[in-house]
Structure formats: structure tokens, C-alpha cells
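From the shared-data thread, chain only:
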Amino acid sequence: MNSETPAALESDAVEAAQAAGRLLKQRFEEKGPLRVEAKGLHDFVTQVDLDAESVIVTYLRERYPHHAVMSEEASPEAERAGHRWIVDPLDGTTNFIHGVPTFGVSIAVEDREGLLASAIHHPLRGETFHAHRGGGARLNGAPIACSRPADPDESLIATGFPFRELSRLDRYLVAFEAFVRCTAGMRRAGAACIDLAYTACGRYDGFWEIGLSRWDIAAGVLLVREAGGTVTDVVGGDSSLETGDIVAAGAEFHPALLDVTRDAFG
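Structure, as C-alpha cells:
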């Protein structure tokens, strides 16, 4: 049986993410035809998603046959049984379909106390962000930390458009306008796991979005926390993994973001 220490689980999350990433990189560079199916409004899945998921799930089941696996395409409802892996094999499918080179692999594992280890891999940049509970966050093995902007006016933050939450679009736009007015800029890259990884390493000063899924954000939530940041839902609660509403930033900067989202959604 494999070791189940946090560091060992982190290492296996990295290995699985990189294995899937090699497949994604190859398929992206081949520029072959894609079979695309719609799962919902503006929500797509391709054979590449399924193949990358198969790589990850096979890897994990061989090493941890007694662990549950929650994966976006095959088993989105998997219940926790001690340890549970949370897998998004291709975050940024729409980007991938259109040839936009921003997408990632996101893998986390949780136990009964919460998130335990995670990895996010950006295949085209060769970057792997990884962490385990109590062990800090790293990029390709080097320690990383959230930024500490001196003033919101100097900050660069990220968001995502709530295509699954159009009933809340009016409130989202209230927050969006407020952030446009009080920050130096806002980016929408189309892959939440990359947004959270970039927040953990200080490229972005913060990230906020609504209506995401657990597999979109689980790995990134742990990364940001281990990089010294704070993660809440949009009104300051701890329901991000359940609701998919998230505000993530360095501990000192997080309250400034939360003031805006709480006004819009509270």
C-alpha cells in the first residue's frame, strides 16, 4: 500500500496531473478534429477531457483503490469515504476547443478534516503548482506566496463570467463594475484553476467568481491557503467548496475584495 502522508499524496497528485498534462499538450499541438458535446449552456466536454480523466483516474485507482474519486466527467457525485480525490482533467475546455493556450489539470485530495494535498498543472508552460496541508505551497518545487499589494488601486485581480449562474448576473455585474473602478485591472482567462494558482504565486492579487464546481476550485483553494492567503465565499463564509462562490487573496488584501462582493451579494 502506498504511503498516505500528506507529502506522498501531494507527490502523487503532481504525477497524475503531469501525466494528464502530457496528453493534453500533445492533443493541443496536434490540432486534430475534436468531438465536442454540450453538457449544458456554454458548458462543453470533448474526447480529450475524457481521455485525460482516464489517465488520472487509472493512476489514482492503481495506487489508492480504497479511495473515492470525484471527477467532473465520470463520477461527479462520488461520496467521500475517508479520502476522496477531486479531479478536473481539463479546466478551460472552451479555451482548448478554440486553440486558446490557457487551460490546466486540477487534482486535490481531501480527508475528513478537509483538503489535504493538491496539484495544478499548466501543460503548455510546464508549470506545476502543488501543496499539502501544513506544508506550504510551491511552483515546480520552489516556495510561493500570495502577493501583498499596498493599495487596491494598484492590484490586478481575476474573475470568471458566471455562465452557469445567469440568474445572478445582475449582482455579479454590480461587483464587476465596483472592481473595475477600484483596481488597476481585472482578467478573465477562462480556467479557474489557473486563476487560483496565479493568485497563490502572486501573479494575481486576488480572484473571485460565483457558481463554480468543487473540482474547479478544490486544488486552488488549498494552494492559496498554503501560500498564506485567505479563501471564503462571497459573503465571508466558509461555503466555497459547496456553493462554488469564492473570494481568494492574500490575507491582508482579502478584506478589500470581500467588502465589494459582500455589498453585491449580501
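The domain at 152-265 is CATH 3.40.190.80 (D-Maltodextrin-Binding Protein; domain 2).
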